[in-house]
Input
Amino acid sequence: MMYVYWGIELFATFIELFLSTIFCGTFIEITTTGKTLIRRLIGSVVLSVVMLIVNHIHLFSPITTLIAFSLTILLNVIVFRKNIAKLIVLSTTILLIILMIDNVVSSIISIVVKIPVFELYQELSLYRVLAIISSKIVLLLLVVIINKFFSRKRTLQKRYLIILFSITTLMFITTVLVTFTEIKTNSVNSVISILFFAVMLILLMIIFFGT
Output
């Protein structure tokens, strides 16, 4: 059964990485070709395996978050090979979206099944699998909506790029600090977490679409 859990973790990581390339590709002026798609698939698979190995060492920690951040940027740089500054901003944005969705979904499931939310993060269980699958479905829907909405609006002016990067970086740091502080102290209040991360996600979407 443990192999099934890790298989789902691997697939979920692959989905996150692959969707990050879809998200970034929406705003990168590049024609999608067969080679680009192959780079997306191979890169996502290889880096998913790397993340799986890292998760075996420590399932959920600031270190794994930092590694995921670095690998996401690396993947998009490998895939698109241009506009590195823009890719860093977009990668930070999609990682922030992923982190917030994961927190909201996990908090909701914690309330429904009546178990502490930090157990979902730190243990491999059926509830964690449910949280993973649910959050990736939400992520997929959101990325598809953004891709459709911005498919003909790819230009991001430099000043807006700087503004977006500054805001997303601040929100990313805040989200990571809040998440790991709550988990470390076992003081997670699911209702408050839902409100906090939902509001943060809505604010991010308003800023993102406004930019």
About this structure: The two ends are 45 Å apart (CA to CA). The CA atoms of residues 71 and 96 lie 14 Å apart. The helical segments are 2-25, 34-57, 62-80, 84-113, 117-122, 126-150, 158-185, 190-210.
